[in-house]
Amino acid sequence: MPASDPLDPPPDPSLDPSLDPLDPLDPLDPLDRERAHLTASRTALRTMREDVQALDIRDVTANWVNAAVLEAQIEERIKALADLAHTPLFFGRLDYLPTTQHGQRFYIGRRHVHDGAGDPMVVDWRAPVSQPFYRASTKDPQDVRLRRRFGYTGGDLTAYEDEHLTDPSAATFSGSAGGSRTSRLLQAEIERPRVGPMRDIVATIQPEQDEIVRSGLSGTVCVQGGPGTGKTAVGLHRVAYLLYAHRERLARTGTLVIGPNRSFLHYIEQVLPALGELEVRQSTVDDLVTHVAQVEVRGEDSAEAAVVKGDARMAEVLRRALRSHVTAPAEALMVVRGSRRWRIPAYELEEIVGELLDRDIRYGAARDALPQRIAHAVLVRMEAAGEAPDDRVQDAVARNAAVKAAVRTIWPAVDPARLVLRLLSDTDFLAEHADGLLTADEQKAVLWTRPPRSVRSAKWSSADAVLIDEASDLVERTHSLGHVVLDEAQDLSPMQYRAVGRRCTTGSATVLGDLAQGTTPWATASWAEALAHLGKPDAAVEELTAGFRVPREVIAYASRLLPHISPGLAEVHSVRESPGSLEIRAAASGDADVVAACVQALRNEGSIGLIAADARVPALTSALAAAGLHPLAPGEETTPDSRLTLVPASLAKGLEYDYVVLDEPAAIVDAEPDDRTGLRRLYVALTRAVSGLTVLHAAPLPPQLS
Question: Which UniProt keywords apply (predicted)?
């Protein structure tokens, strides 16, 4: 195995069987040869960017609209061709057998780079020819003679490792499709200190992850993955792959990444741009629905009320309440046109209304169709009387004042927010439409004790906004995107799943989550149930059980909680053994011990997270400040000079730090409304560390950790 400093002393290059004696560069200096290719590739990328910048579009655009569109496309292309100084342009190499691919050599990187003749110098990791870099093994070499991994320090190429896949006597790496030995470069990349936002894992994607990343656009995929299995990164890389493979289609229909909170979205926001994808929108469920509902979330529900409001039965309550606004016509309709009068009897109007209700189309679409159906009934009478009306006449009749007045009476316009306001304020109205669906106690739980006077003055909760979004969709269909990624999905209520599902009714989704990390009172019990609410019951469910982030000792300790929080769920088995990565000690001096642990952790390289129960955050902030430490808040980007983040346990999900100091596990459990939710919150907090975890406790540890 060739390798170079800093991992091993430089080997004797003359013993390296992978070197090509016909290479024009010095075969005795392979590392310099690779550095030369890196330099040449960067030069080629710069040339590609300069070529785009030099484009003159004045003679190829017909008008200012076309010019503006083309200029925007060129600007995006220039951004995509930016050379990120500290991001390796390529991270791997494939040498194919002479009998396949003409014995070609391909460098695998984050984007395609070609030379002046159009020949590839770096191949995009998403291209079909790159797939063997992630899946080939000695058992299935996929025509690859040699796979080379590169190690970098900053942006400088400093090391490489080789795997001879067609040589049965050569050892392979356990990180590469089931070999016997661990790739030191692969492990070093996984363990590289984390400072700044989340980074891509494109250089370390494993075979089981790659299968999910490259699955087709037409199907929805649900990924169950424990802590450290890379499910979030897999979902983001799947978006990047789909944009590569189906760019034109997704450019028309759009893509969306949905995360649990804005801190989490800020943490992951640089992954896709690092892969050259700049146009993927990111949002939380709350932001999605409040944008549609046009209300400000200022209130908070009790756990009992939130559970009921998030229940899928509320969709039927809303449907009944909305349809109750449709009233049967009480009298005939008289339409005057010129000197003639045309009468539509009440029973015929009732038949028209009944037919529209039976079709169960959107309330707004049916309301728009009603005047046309009435006008058609008038035209039938005109034709029977010997007239020859055309479509223009029908449109004119539909706009007739009498017809419009009848529509307003029979099928009035309904404002979704006002509908929800009435349901949550009017006891009788709710009872009428929740009959047989919600119990009396459930109805009482969701009713406002002091009803607001108007939509504007109401203190809407997040669950209320989801109800308004549901009502809005009942009135007018929600626009569907081409693909949606839903992360931390286990925490969504059935009504939230429905809200997300509306955004991909004609598209597909990637659903990511861990049932053991569900920390809301309405957390989903099974993926089958969740996918049914999402409207994707036939989605494929994949499980990732190999852990790459959390050290083996840490994940084993946290997994003691699994029988109590998610019986039957597979335990994550970490590939990383790190003796000394877990320390549990009593905090005899209270906050002073916590501060001392943070100071000790800061002696290590990388990011530090202090995770504590939300109620403990003010006291710890003061204690840290007294010691001259001023921690960041979750979502604020760490820097080499500011590496300590104070994380409320409620916001820890999805985040990761090189070293974690966990304050008072019992307080984290006790802060939740029930033991299962509290233990799940603790499970999340225990699994945020990449290199080391220190658990401090003054109170006894929860017995489930015994």
Answer: ATP-binding, Helicase, Hydrolase, Nucleotide-binding
Q: Amino acid identity, residue 565?
A: I
Give the dihedral sign, CA 552/558/563/566: negative
Residue 700, token pair as written in the block: 């006894």
Say yes or no: do domains 202-325+414-546 and 552-705 share a fold: yes
The structure tokens listed for 679 are 């233990």
Single-letter amino acid code for the residue at 591: D
Q: How far is CA 93 from CA 26, 109, 157, 275, 667, in A?
A: 18, 9, 13, 18, 50
* 3 state SS of 150: strand
Annotated binding site: 225-232
Task: Give the CATH H-level superfamily of domain 202-325+414-546.
Answer: P-loop containing nucleotide triphosphate hydrolases (3.40.50.300)
Which residue, 506, 691, 663, is CA-closest to 604? 691
Residues 6+ apart with CB under 8 A from 293: 416, 417, 460, 465, 468, 469, 472
Classify domain 552-705 at the CATH topology level: Rossmann fold (3.40.50)
Tell me phi and psi for residue 521, to 5 degrees: -60, -20
Extents of the domains making up the chain:
13-181, 202-325+414-546, 333-410, 552-705
Instruction: Please give the DSSP secondary-structure letter assigned to residue 520.
Output: S
CA–CA distance, 239 with 255 (Å, rounded to integer): 8
pLDDT averaged over 10-residue windows placed end to end, the chain, 706 residues: 39 39 54 92 91 77 71 76 77 89 86 92 94 92 92 83 81 40 66 65 86 94 93 92 92 92 84 80 94 91 95 98 94 91 95 94 96 95 89 93 95 96 97 97 95 92 97 96 96 97 96 94 93 97 89 94 91 84 92 96 94 97 95 87 94 90 97 92 95 95 92
Task: Using CA atoms of 334, 337, 338, 340 in order, give the dihedral in degrees to the nearest 10.
Answer: -50
For the record, the structure tokens of 87 come out as 């991001």
3-state secondary structure of 580: coil
Q: Which amino acid is at 467?
A: L
603 backbone φψ class: left, alpha, beta (φ>0; ψ -120 to 50): alpha
User: Residues annotated in the binding site for ATP, as ranges?
Assistant: 225-232
Q: At what angle do helices 591-601 and 617-626 cross, to 10 degrees?
A: 60
Alpha-carbon Rg for the chain, nearest whole angstrom, is 31
